[in-house]
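BUG: 3D viewer hangs when loading the predicted structure for this chain

Environment: internal workstation, default settings.
Expected: structure renders.
Actual: progress bar stalls at 90%.

Input used:
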Amino acid sequence: MKPGKVKWGVLGAASIAVRKVIPAMQKGEWTEVAAIASRDIRKAEDAAHRLKIAKAYGSYEELLADPEIEAIYNPLPNHLHVPWSIKAAEAGKHVLCEKPLSLTVSEARTLLAARDRCGVKIGEAFMVKTHPQWLRTRDLIRKGVIGELRSIGGVFSYFNRDPQNVRHVAGWGGGGLMDIGCYPITTSRWIFEEEPVRVAGTMENDPEFGTDRLASAILEFPSGHSIFTCSTQLVPYQRMQFLGTTGRIEIEIPFNAPNDRPTRLYIDDGRDVFGTGIRVETIPVCDQYTVQGDTFSRAIRDGGEVPVPLEDSIANMAVIEAVFRAAETGKWWKPEAL
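Structure tokens produced before the viewer hung:
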């Protein structure tokens, strides 16, 4: 194993990067954010100054040419995920790419080819899959604490009608399903440990932006169902529930888990509908972006698998595509990962 922290570079000064991910990664035991790039050198220098990053570049190409940088974090707008992740791979860099990994299944598969051709690691940044509250939930379900898992239900919403927000640009992969609906999809697949055999969906588009602002879906798995709603124009709210034949688990803040207070799981033994059988399990404070960065860096150092490999990302994108098709046609649709 190569000693020392993995030296990371960041493509762009996206809000999620400078506000959440970079500060968290800087707290990691295995992660060092050594450079940041922007097409506006002043933005890169300002972010580097504020976050105490050693190097600032005025182009993404300059960062990728830096021989000291081992890995790239790619938080660019969705339509730039695949092109710049491929360029990073071709420069010999490992890549942690923000979700959604791509705009289509076929586009995602080009990343798979680039990974194998270049011999680097590429993974999708679903930070929830390394958060202890999700690992604990999966462990409890595997142990049969709620009996046989049969149903998953979720909601993820926020309100944003800012026309300047990239999430409202249809051609850039905007809309609620791509931005936040991907979370209940990936976690449902992960917890069921199966792929859905067919999906149904319904969707309402914003008349001004043309992106989906309200979407709901049913995912039919061999072992049960997952049903969720996501929206970019509803009250901010998120919950995930897992119902088994004898009990239930609810994750209080499943996706935007706070980094300054513990998180909570509600574990119901099913004795009645009044909640007298609920016990609360507290998960200690952690920053899920720190955990994600360190887990990815450890995979680079020890040669292990990244938390969310491309094969999983392609399967997730297949479900997203199927929900879109189901909503368009009014029919059940089978996910096809090609």
